[in-house]
């Protein structure tokens, strides 16, 4: 069953989304050469708690961190360990906030600059496609559409560009639980009318989880969390929490052009 939220509850989630957006601003601005991932995690917890919220991810059984930090081939659930960020790395920050009884969820990927005279390259193009796919997916979150429409928007943006969408790692509903129904795949699954219809009260974490190479994934050895691209190619993730209220669709977490 898909949990629906009232307009009042969505307003509370909007407050949480603002907190998460501010925290993400801080984390992305600190994701620079020489920064240790574990320090980013400590920063995230501090920034979340000082705003009267709690780290959502610490409520996941067995997970003690406030963020997932995904570097290069790490596609999701990267442990914020002692890795030191290097020039040219893709850094994906995934973070959640629990505020007034509700979760919001967001992620964003950036390329760490390689020098003062850096010029756009294939990684920038790769990341631009991911952002474009997210924006197109968000545009389909409106009453009367179907989850299929979100999936199609993401898939038809990523795949024609020569990249692959993960068929196992997907978006989801979000609210009192961090992960709720419905599932929101990044690629089309089944027939449109057989997927959940989007109605007022739905709140969705729309996610673009994709790779430069093939979509196959694997767990990193000796790690129950970190998932990597099986062929070692670069990956990216972009995510926003989007609500459908009686006043229309609302993006609750910040996106970046």
UniProtKB/TrEMBL annotation:
Reaction it catalyzes: Release of N-terminal amino acids, preferentially methionine, from peptides and arylamides
A Pfam family reported for this protein in Swiss-Prot or TrEMBL: Peptidase_M24
Stretches of the chain forming a coiled coil according to its record: none
GO molecular function: initiator methionyl aminopeptidase activity; metal ion binding; metalloaminopeptidase activity
Residue sites binding a divalent metal cation 1 per the record: 94, 105, 239
Family annotation (InterPro entries): Creatinase/aminopeptidase-like, Pept_M24, Pept_M24_MAP, Pept_M24A_MAP1
Cofactor note: Binds 2 divalent metal cations per subunit. Has a high-affinity and a low affinity metal-binding site. The true nature of the physiological cofactor is under debate. The enzyme is active with cobalt, zinc, manganese or divalent iron ions. Most likely, methionine aminopeptidases function as mononuclear Fe(2+)-metalloproteases under physiological conditions, and the catalytically relevant metal-binding site has been assigned to the histidine-containing high-affinity site.
Cofactor: Co(2+); Zn(2+); Mn(2+); Fe(2+)
Biological process, per Gene Ontology: proteolysis
A GO CC annotation given for this chain: cytosol
Domain of life, per lineage: Bacteria
Function: Removes the N-terminal methionine from nascent proteins. The N-terminal methionine is often cleaved when the second residue in the primary sequence is small and uncharged (Met-Ala-, Cys, Gly, Pro, Ser, Thr, or Val). Requires deformylation of the N(alpha)-formylated initiator methionine before it can be hydrolyzed.
Quaternary structure, from the entry: Monomer.
Alphabetized NCBIfam families for the sequence: met_pdase_I
Protein name: Methionine aminopeptidase
Organism: Candidatus Gottesmanbacteria bacterium RIFCSPHIGHO2_02_FULL_39_11
Name of the gene this protein is made from: map
């Amino acid at each position: 069953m898909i949990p629906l939220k009232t307009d009042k509850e969505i307003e509370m989630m909007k407050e949480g989304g603002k907190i998460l957006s501010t925290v993400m601003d801080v984390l992305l601005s600190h994701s620079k050469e020489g920064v240790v991932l574990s320090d980013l995690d400590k920063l995230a917890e501090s920034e979340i708690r000082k705003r009267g919220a709690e780290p959502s991810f610490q409520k996941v059984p067995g997970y003690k961190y406030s963020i997932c930090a995904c570097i290069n081939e790490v596609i999701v659930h990267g442990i914020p360990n002692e890795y030191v960020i290097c020039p040219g790395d893709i850094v994906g920050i995934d973070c959640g906030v629990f505020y007034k009884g509700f979760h919001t969820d967001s992620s964003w990927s950036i390329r760490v600059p390689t020098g003062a005279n850096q010029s756009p390259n294939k990684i920038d193009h790769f990341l631009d496609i991911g952002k474009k796919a997210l924006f197109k997916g968000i545009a389909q979150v409106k009453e009367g559409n179907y989850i299929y429409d979100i999936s199609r928007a993401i898939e038809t943006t990523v795949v024609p560009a020569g990249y692959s969408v993960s068929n196992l790692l997907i978006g989801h509903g979000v609210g009192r639980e961090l992960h709720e129904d419905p599932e929101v795949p990044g690629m089309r699954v089944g027939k449109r009318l057989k997927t959940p219809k989007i109605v007022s009260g739905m709140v969705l974490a729309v996610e673009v989880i994709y790779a430069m190479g093939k979509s196959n994934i694997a767990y990193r050895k000796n790690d129950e969390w970190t998932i990597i691209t099986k062929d070692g190619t670069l990956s990216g993730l972009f995510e926003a929490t989007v609500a459908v209220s009686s006043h229309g669709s609302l993006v609750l977490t910040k996106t970046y052009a």
